[in-house]
Amino acid sequence: MCATTIIIFIFWIGLFSFMIIDFSAHYMGSVAKMVAAAGNQFWYPPESDDVEKRLKIMGKYGVDMQVLSQATPILSGIGSREAAEICKASNDSIHELCEEYPDKFVGLAIVSLLDVEGALEELDRAVKDLGLRGVTIATNQNGTGLDSPSYAPFYDRVTKYDIPIFLHPTNWSSYALIEGVEGFGLMIIIGWPFDTTQALCRLIFGKVLENYPSLKIVTHHLGGFFPYSRVETFFEGPSMEILGLKKPLAEYLKQIYGDTALSGMGKLRKEILSCGYAFFGSQRIVFGTDYPFGAESGESFVRDNLKPIKDLKISEEDKSRIFEKNAKRLLKIN
Predict the structure, then answer these.
(1) Which ranges of 38-176 would DSSP assign to H, the alpha helix?
(2) Distance between CA 48 and CA 149 in Å, rounded?
(3) pTM score over 0.70
(4) % of the chain exceeding 70 in pLDDT
(5) CB of 68 within 8 A of CB of 26?
(6) Which of 134, 151, 207, 317 is the most buried (most CB within 10 A)?
């Protein structure tokens, strides 16, 4: 280990007296070729599958553990059969890495709800046989909202296992101004946060959270636009009653968490995190980086998402919840 790395390591360790768990780290594993063969051109830095490189970056910044998940855009535009095969292969890859390094990685499953019965079978296998501790789903299922009545068996099974849902944004179509090259790549920049926001609204106003009060939803990228939207202004009091909801909006929000993976927020990252903190509170935020995406083979996202939390004027207890305790509670990490 070079002297510079040692100095950085000591610096980060000196800042924190608790574990740092990265709730939002992605791992492609064996599915990259499957995704390409299915016609999905999803960019992913292949060097991030080098476990030693991943562990080196974690050690450099004092990240004790990564929660490995899959990025749901790998399923965009893919049919139910191929999507199921990709999900199964992804779950196997994540399980294998967690088995090899149990002190460094825990895993989340991924399922596609294009085939609900198949998703239930894969969820059973992922939880019972592979020991995965949560499940990732996309914010829409090829254009179907998450409040579709056909997904009720899925929510039944998730609550039975008492595991969190990790809500990952994905692509959608119908607005050409942000799609493809001619849309300047704006789908992943503003399209994904929008899709996270609509998904949360459908989960709340479509009565999914009403029907499943123990359900826990963790949103990628700090809730999309939800904390900064006009939702609370328009959906309070009489509006909730008109929709047939029994509780005020604030009660449903207690079931929703956000991660700190504010990739691409630039100089305003600290201010945006402060807004997200004011919305979620320390008990409903988990630290996340979106590794391995970003510059420097993903290292920049690790560094840049650590700093604004360090700079927040909050107590050490609040920081320990964000970095460690909330993830441990959600995923039952001892």
Answers:
(1) 51-60, 80-100, 116-124, 152-161
(2) 38
(3) yes
(4) 94
(5) yes
(6) 134
Q: Is the peptide bond before 292 cis (omega within 30 degrees of 0)?
A: yes
Please give the helix or strand (H or E) that residue 273 lies within, else none.
helix 269-280
The helix or strand, by DSSP H or E, that contains position 260, with its residue range, turns out to be: none
Per-residue pLDDT, 2: 57
What confidence tens digit (pLDDT) does each residue in 61-95 have?
Answer: 999 999 999 999 999 999 999 999 999 999 999 99
- Using CA atoms, how far residue 192 sits from 179, 279, 307, in Å, is 11, 20, 24
Q: Confirm if 48 and 292 have CB atoms less than 8 A apart.
A: yes
Q: Are 64 and 13 in contact (CB under 8 A)?
A: no
State how far the Cα of 321 lies from the Cα of 329, in Å rounded to an integer. Answer: 10
Question: Which two three-digit tokens encode residue 139?
Answer: 């914010």
CATH code of 26-331, in short, is 3.20.20.140
Parallel/antiparallel/unpaired status of strands 217-219 and 256-259 = parallel
Amino acid letter at 170?
T
